[in-house]
Specification:
The complex is a heterodimer of chains A (338) and B (415). Chain A is 37% helix and 13% strand. Chain A is globular. With 338 residues, chain A is of the alpha/beta class. Chain B is an alpha/beta fold and 415 residues long. In chain B, the strands form three sheets. Chain B has a seven-stranded mixed beta sheet, with helices on both faces. A six-stranded mixed beta sheet of chain B has the order 10-12-11-14-15-16, sandwiched between helices. In chain B, strand 11, helix 10 and strand 12 form a beta-alpha-beta unit. Chains A and B meet through strand 1, strand 2, helix 4 and helix 6 of A and helix 3, helix 5 and strand 9 of B. The structure holds iron/sulfur cluster.
Chain lengths: 338, 415
């Protein structure tokens, strides 16, 4: 497809206001996610955005265990389980099969969306090599990382996506070591866009911005080829807060700058929602404290810890060449002496 | 006896892996997933060339590892594509999680296992423990002996796997080196008649497609696993009938019994290959290419008056229990040659040994069973080795077994 044609199609695929979002649901009742589960919203958005001509593949995790209890599946579109580290390979296999079967006239020629979702373990840890491999092919497939920042389904264990210092069953504060998780969260979208040249679209999202999220899924599917979306999903059970604050925490993650919203389209970064205003200097980032203090998983933090996180977030916007995205400082950019 | 048509076949020199690749091309596979590991890899090298030359129209996925390789074909198979995959040794084990769900998700994938010793220490040579790792989880498993049998069994595998009474994956094992890399004459039937033998793959109501929005492999917990395992096991049992039908149909369509090349006539039994067994007092049992030294040794020893025969296992899953009983009930001693081991198992014997002993248990008059573990890591089992095995077997016709398990030619333990 010519670039102009794609641009037109993308423009057409975009939903202008929340009132224009289709009413049809393809992820419905029947699931048993926790109250306030934002990952469940990701599922709902992806099904809504993609529509009925879609095959969804789900790696092991909360969104497998809670969504597809036998006899009560919540999926109206076809849905297949893949193993924890299998989403990349499963998406590849599905997309390759559809292409071969259509080319050989064994099934009807038509666009069918292939979406594979995976959690932190299934995407950023065990599944990373498979996701990466899928991103090197030219099949139409979208991989969504629904990131609740822990292995939530197994009772909240640390993953490489758990934020610095957070309490989990594997990173419990103790008498001798107050902070057990000293690793910094993996930055997945930059891994995908820096390492996979034929990825034309990748984005971050969070369900607190529904229209932004739905449109990102639609854009990914419209632009086609291998595409990737990383969603930050507040999780009441893992983050330890009252479920009614899920939406608020998603907003705070963005407004504090901890979770920048952006999309990568054909070699360019476009900032979205409050992140755009932040990067353009029209809005001041809220202190990270406001985000951290609302979650029980950071209840052991001292002022010093909060300051440390604040410094790390400041650095993302003040020192990275592509603010909030890539931890790279160009040798041509003079970084102010501190 | 079914009537046999006259079919003109082309004779081609090829090794076991190439024979499989050609069969997959004949079967018009849609999706192939590859990852390199010796010695199975040449299957994929050949497929790649067949696609490049326009002989085969298929998607060729180079996976990021064997786990991804098997997940890829599993999902391709669930949306209706005919698939080919394979591996060897530790590569097969690296994929183990995906291999198990391929069976439990009832994806009729066909996999080639170029049998190889497991690491460590590294060895390219054959050992059967790689494929045997899946003996309990619902894969149909065949062991082939010649390139011809590899070609024929691959075509049969698709037909059996995709039969709606079965819908299970098939693993075709071939001895690394001895078959993967040795060239033999293979008879290739005319490609046009393959469709008379192999119908298109049709998953029916289990197809994953927007027109058929099913949920595959949901979380069932303690409520349903028993029933699902039981259904799976029943499909394995139904496969016996489907395999028999496929061999008969193969003969009808291609004009020869599977594994036969014209000069070499394969006995008409899909599950086992009996050789000089009718009056045999001592019967040797093995899987794969060990049949070669076995057959020569049997002929040699027959000349010296030993009444000895062979039973080669062609299908290990489903296990040919009835054939084993039928052919062994008149034997006095059975010598099982295992190219594998099962450490710490009863009598410290090999895997096939236990299967045979278990099959014979209910007989009133049981033959004695001896076990010979040999050829591990690709070491040759020589004609002399087999002759010695026959002699040991013969000695036990009237004497009780004091040492049930021998390690053939192992250093430090004279046998
Ligand atoms: S544990 Fe978290 S991610 Fe899992 S269902 Fe509950 S809220 Fe959702």
């Amino acid at each position: 497809m010519a670039e102009k044609e794609i641009e037109e199609k993308v423009y057409k695929s975009i939903i202008k206001t929340i009132k224009d979002v289709p009413l049809e649901e393809y992820y419905t009742s029947g699931h048993r996610t926790c109250q306030g589960c934002e990952s469940a919203l990701v599922m709902r958005f992806l099904a809504k955005a993609a529509g009925p001509r879609t095959i969804v593949i789900g790696a092991t995790g909360c969104m497998y265990v809670a969504n597809t209890t036998y006899y009560t599946t919540s999926w109206v579109v076809p849905w297949v389980h893949t193993q924890l580290g299998g989403s990349g390979a499963a998406a590849l296999g599905t997309a390759a099969a559809l292409r071969a079967l259509m080319r050989k006239g064994k099934i009807k020629q038509e666009p069918i969306n292939v979406i594979a979702f995976c959690g932190d373990l299934g995407c950023a840890d065990m599944g990373l090599s498979g996701v990466s491999n899928a991103m090197t092919y030219d099949y139409n497939l979208l991989i969504i990382l629904y990131d609740n920042e822990s292995s939530a389904n197994t009772d909240i264990q640390e993953t490489s996506m758990t934020p610095y210092g957070a309490q989990t069953s594997f990173s419990r504060p103790g008498k001798a070591r107050r902070i057990m998780k000293r690793r910094w969260k993996k930055n997945v979208v930059p891994i995908i866009i820096a390492g996979h040249r034929n990825v034309k679209y990748a984005a971050t999202m969070t369900p607190a911005y529904p229209l932004d999220a739905i449109n990102k899924i639609r854009k990914a599917l419209t632009i086609g080829g291998p595409t990737f979306i990383h969603s930050l999903d507040p999780c009441p059970k893992g983050w330890d807060y009252d479920p009614k604050f899920s939406h608020e925490l998603g907003v705070l993650a963005v407004e504090t700058g901890i979770w920048p919203l952006y999309e990568y389209v054909n070699g360019e970064i476009i900032y979205n929602e409050p992140t755009k205003s932040i990067v353009e200097g029209r809005m001041k980032r809220k202190p990270v404290k406001e985000y951290l203090e609302k979650q029980g998983r950071f209840s052991h933090f001292t002022e010093e810890d909060i300051e440390y996180v604040q410094r790390m977030v400041d650095e993302m916007y003040e020192e990275w060449e592509i603010p909030g995205v890539m931890p790279i400082k160009s040798i041509n950019v003079k970084i102010s002496d501190k | 006896m079914t009537e046999v048509k006259k079919i003109v076949e082309k004779e081609v020199l090829m090794n076991g892996t190439q024979a499989v690749a050609y069969a997959a091309m004949y079967a018009d596979v849609d999706v192939v997933a590859a990852y390199p590991i010796r010695p199975y890899t040449e299957v994929m090298d050949t497929i790649s060339k067949l696609i490049a030359d326009g002989e085969l129209d298929a998607e060729f996925i180079v996976a990021e590892g064997e786990h991804g390789q098997f997940e890829t074909v599993k999902h391709a198979s669930l949306v209706g594509a005919r698939t080919l995959v394979g591996s060897s040794g530790v590569g097969w084990l690296y994929a183990m999680e995906a291999i198990v769900v391929t069976a439990t998700d009832r994806a009729p994938v066909v996999a080639i296992i170029g049998n190889r010793a497991l690491d460590d220490p590294g060895a390219y040579g054959v050992e059967h423990n790689d494929a045997l790792m899946v003996r309990d989880v619902g894969w149909l498993l065949a062991w082939v002996d010649t390139a011809q049998e590899a070609f024929d069994t691959t075509l049969i595998a698709y037909r059996v796997a995709e039969d709606q009474r079965v819908l299970l994956p098939v693993g075709i094992s071939m001895d690394g080196g001895f078959l993967t890399h040795s060239e033999q004459i293979v008879r290739l039937p005319p490609k046009e008649i393959v469709k008379d033998f192999l119908p298109p793959y049709n998953r029916g109501k289990y197809l994953v497609h927007p027109d058929n929005p099913i949920t595959v492999a949901p979380q069932v917990n303690e409520d349903w696993v028993m029933e699902i395992r039981r259904q799976h096991e029943e499909a394995m049992e139904r496969a016996r009938v489907v395999i028999s039908e496929a061999y008969e149909s193969f003969k009808k369509v291609f004009g020869r019994y599977p594994g036969s090349t014209g000069d070499i006539k394969m006995p008409e039994n899909p599950f086992v290959e009996p050789f000089m067994i009718d009056d045999a007092e001592v019967v040797l049992i093995g899987m794969g290419t060990v049949s070669k030294p076995m057959k020569v040794a049997i002929k040699n020893m027959r000349k010296q008056g030993y009444k000895v025969g062979m039973l080669r296992i062609r299908w290990f899953r489903p296990f040919p229990t009835q054939d084993v009983i039928r052919y062994l009930s008149n034997a006095r001693v059975v010598c099982v040659i295992d190219r594998d081991y099962s450490m710490g198992s009863p009598n410290r014997g090999g895997v096939v040994y236990h299967e045979i002993r278990s099959s014979l248990y209910d007989l009133d008059q049981r033959p004695k069973v001896l076990n010979f573990i040999g050829g591990l890591g690709g070491r040759e089992i020589t004609i002399q080795d087999v002759e010695k095995i026959i002699k040991i077997g013969y000695e036990h016709r009237d004497t009780p077994i004091t040492k049930p398990v021998y390690w053939v030619g192992v250093r430090g333990d004279p046998w």
